[in-house]
Amino acid sequence: MFDQVIVGLFLGWGAAIPIGAINLEMIRRNLQFGTAAGLALGFGACCADVTYLVLLSLGVLQILHHPFVIKAVGILGSLLLTWFGYKALRLKSVYFNDQPQAPMRIRSSWRHTIEGYLLTLINPYTILFWSSISMTIAVMTHASDHAVFYAGLGVLLGTFSWAAGLNGFLHFTRHRLSKRTIQKINIAGGIILIGFAALGFWRALFLL
């Protein structure tokens, strides 16, 4: 049991730590909307990683080896990134202090969680990562009846510990950034997200 949790923990870190669209969007939302928004998006991403772990253990993700399915997922993921980048560029600064508008807080947290889940779920890079460790998942699945549960717990701990650490760091350092700097980071984040989307389109249409 303990070994499976540890393996899941390292898998979770492997999925979460590399800098990409998910981490970029989590940083952008933390600075723009506050720590709660960044944590909510990070939690959604964690749930998506656990979903992939379960699907891999069941053999469901074998369908993603089909070229048409990979291209379709790549295009969908790129469209979602484009939408997030577009919203980032159009967004006005609404959160620059520690007192966001209370009526929007709960609804926004759920929205950030759902968007984090969807963004990670149809991210081609996330799919490629979990597909690349399919052999590890297969070994864990046959180790015991509850191997996937323990590994999933480890993945959740790994991904969320990274999200919590990153958002915690931003929470204690964001006050050193001026409003103008946060606005520039938000715009840069939107442009980079659109860049990731363009790269995803190119890969989906010509490389996958």
Keywords:
single chain, about 210 residues, mainly alpha, about 80% helix
Distance between the termini: 37 Å
Low-confidence spans: 93-106
E-strand count: 0
Q: Roughly how many Å is the radius of gyration?
A: 18 Å
Helix content: over 70%
Largest sheet: none
Summed up, the helix count is 9
State the secondary-structure class. mainly alpha
Report the average pLDDT across residues: 78
Q: Strand-and-helix sequence, N→C? A: HHHHHHHHH
Strand content: under 5%
Q: In one word, what is the shape?
A: flat
Q: Would you kindly provide a written description of the structure presented here, covering whatever features stand out?
A:
By secondary structure, this protein is an all-alpha fold. The chain contains 9 helices and no strands. α2 (21-33) runs antiparallel to α3 (35-58) and α2 packs antiparallel against α9. The N and C termini lie far apart (37 Å). Residues 93-106 have low confidence and may be disordered.
Helices, strands, pairings?
Elements: H1 2-16, H2 21-33, H3 35-58, H4 67-90, H5 102-121, H6 124-132, H7 134-143, H8 147-173, H9 179-207
Give me a quick take on this structure.
This protein is mainly alpha-helical and 208 residues long.
